Amino acid sequence: MTDFTTDAPVLRTRTAPPKREYYAYFGLIFLATLPLCLLTWVLSAARRMELPAKGPIAKAWTQARIITPQIFSA
After folding, report:
1. Which whole number is the average pLDDT over 68-72?
2. I want to staple 56 with a disulfide (CB 3.0 to 4.6 A). Which of 17, 26, 37, 69 is the partner?
3. Predicted pLDDT at 10
4. Cβ proximity of 68 and 28 under 8 Å
5. What is the number of other CB atoms lying within 10 angstroms of the CB of residue 30?
6. What integer pLDDT is reported at residue 12 of this predicted model?
7. How many Cβ atoms from other residues are within 10 Å of residue 68's Cβ?
8. Residue 55 CA: distances (Å) to CA of 23, 36, 68
9. How far is the CA of 50 from the CAs of 12, 47, 53, 74, in angstroms?
10. Burial of 61 by CB count in 10 Å (0-12 exposed, 13-18 middle, 19+ buried)?
């Protein structure tokens, strides 16, 4: 009699990182970068006497999108 169970492929499930934890870190980083982005936006607007193309919220959002995945990949 042949045992076929030893030749069965091992199925491994990939678990995705918890989304709640990702969003919590994203929110904290967004809130931490927002004041600095607002300050740099105001200083840049005052220096050039025109509004920058990207607003402070967009800059903070971009920074949070860059930093948060780096935390989870480490």
Report:
1. 90
2. 37
3. 65
4. no
5. 19
6. 72
7. 19
8. 22, 12, 20
9. 55, 8, 9, 39
10. middle
φ/ψ of residue 26, rounded to 5: -60, -45
Measure the N-to-C terminal CA separation of the chain; round to a whole number of Å.
49
Tokens 């919220």 map to which residue? 57
How far is residue 60's CA from residue 35's CA, in Å, rounded to a whole number? 9
Q: Are 52 and 44 in contact (CB under 8 A)?
A: yes
What integer is the mean pLDDT of 50-73?
93
pLDDT of residue 56: 95
